[in-house]
Amino acid sequence: GAGVYSVDLWKRAQLEDSSWKYDVVPEIMDGKNIYDFVDPDIDKKLAQLEREEELLMKEAALRDDDQVLNEFAKTQNVLDELHSRMRQKRLENRLSKSKNGNPVLRKKKKKAEDVERQLEKQGLDGSKVRARSAAKTPRSSSLLGKRKRDATAGAADGEVARGRAASALRAASARSMSRMK
Questions:
Q1: Averaged pLDDT, 74-101
Q2: Which pLDDT value is given to residue 105?
Q3: Among residues 97, 101, 118, 133, which one has the fewest Cβ atoms lying within 10 Å of its Cβ?
Q4: The pLDDT of residue 156
Q5: Are 133 and 112 in contact (CB under 8 A)?
Q6: How confident is the model over 65-75, as a mean pLDDT?
Q7: Where are the beta strands (DSSP E) in the chain?
Q8: DSSP letter string over 78-131?
Q9: How far is it, in rounded angstroms, from Cα 92 to Cα 94?
Q10: Where is the composition biased (Low complexity) (predicted)?
Q11: Helices 112-121 and 127-135 meet at what angle, rounded to 10?
């Protein structure tokens, strides 16, 4: 095409006959005479090989029908088994993928009695554990939550619930008002 230049490498070749420069089948290739590798009877030999191949193909076609069907059935069974394993692996992967996002459940707290029994089985004194847990002071009332304080201070549950409900109504009306602006 346009802009493509191909260098003529045979332009300056010095041969006995200058018409040999552009022969389709050169006499010398890679420093060797090609006629040493060409057999004059090659066409006859090729025709004979083609006839033999044709006879072999006809003979194979006659006896291979059952054999081919059996081989096909075996191959199909192996392929079905492979596809089944692939489907099974896909399902396993989908199931395990869904497990990745699940939170890990926390361990249950051990009761002091269970710990004491376990220590006694190991031959240790478990009464010290019981004494230590009993010696801890309970949290002060300032650290308790507001709702717990209200409940212990004598406020009725209905009052606390009504207070929360009124608060929720105010928040909802404030949100709806802000959307109107």
A1: 90
A2: 79
A3: 101
A4: 52
A5: yes
A6: 86
A7: 28-29, 32-33
A8: HHHHHHHHHHHHHHHHHHHHHHTTSPPPPPPPPPHHHHHHHHHHTT---HHHHH
A9: 5
A10: 163-181
A11: 150
